[in-house]
C-alpha cells in the first residue's frame, strides 16, 4: 500500500512540476532534477532512494521534454 501511495504522489508531482523553461532541453533538465528529487524521497520511503531517484529523473526528464510551454508553465528556470 505504501509503495502504491508513493508512486501516485510521485507521479502527480512529476506531472505538476516537470516543466519550466522555454526549450525542450530546459524543460527536460528541470523535469529530470525535480523528478530525481521526488523519486529519491519516494524511494526512501520503501528503502531504495537511489532507484527512486533514477526512475524519477528519467520520468521527469521525459515528461518535461515532451510537454510544451502551453501545457505546463511554472515560470522561468532559476538559471535565467
Keywords for this structure?
0% strand; elongated; 3 helices; 80 residues; mainly alpha
Describe what you observe in this structure.
There is one protein chain. The protein is elongated, with a radius of gyration of 12 Å. It has helices at residues 2-17, 24-45, 49-66. Helix content is 70%, strand content 0%. The protein has three helices and no strands. The longest helix has 22 residues, at 24-45. The chain is mostly helical. The chain starts with a helix and ends in a 14-residue tail after the last helix. It has a domain at 25-67.
- Average pLDDT rating: 78
The percent range for helix content is: over 70%
Order of helices and strands: HHH
Q: How many distinct helices?
A: 3
Binned strand content: under 5%
For the secondary structure, the number of strands is 0
Largest sheet: none
Structural class: mainly alpha
Sum up the overall morphology in one term. elongated
Spans with pLDDT under 50 lasting ≥5 residues? Answer: none
Describe the structure in brief.
The protein is mainly alpha-helical. The chain has helices at residues 2-17, 24-45, 49-66.
Please specify the SSE layout and strand pairing.
Layout: H1 2-17, H2 24-45, H3 49-66
Amino acid at each position: 500500500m505504501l509503495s502504491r501511495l508513493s508512486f501516485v504522489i510521485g507521479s502527480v508531482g512529476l506531472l505538476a512540476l516537470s516543466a519550466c523553461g522555454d526549450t525542450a532541453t530546459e524543460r527536460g533538465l528541470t523535469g529530470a532534477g525535480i523528478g530525481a528529487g521526488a523519486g529519491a524521497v519516494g524511494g526512501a520511503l520503501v528503502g531504495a532512494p537511489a532507484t527512486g531517484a533514477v526512475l524519477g529523473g528519467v520520468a521527469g526528464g521525459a515528461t518535461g521534454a515532451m510537454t510544451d510551454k502551453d501545457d505546463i508553465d511554472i515560470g522561468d528556470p532559476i538559471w535565467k
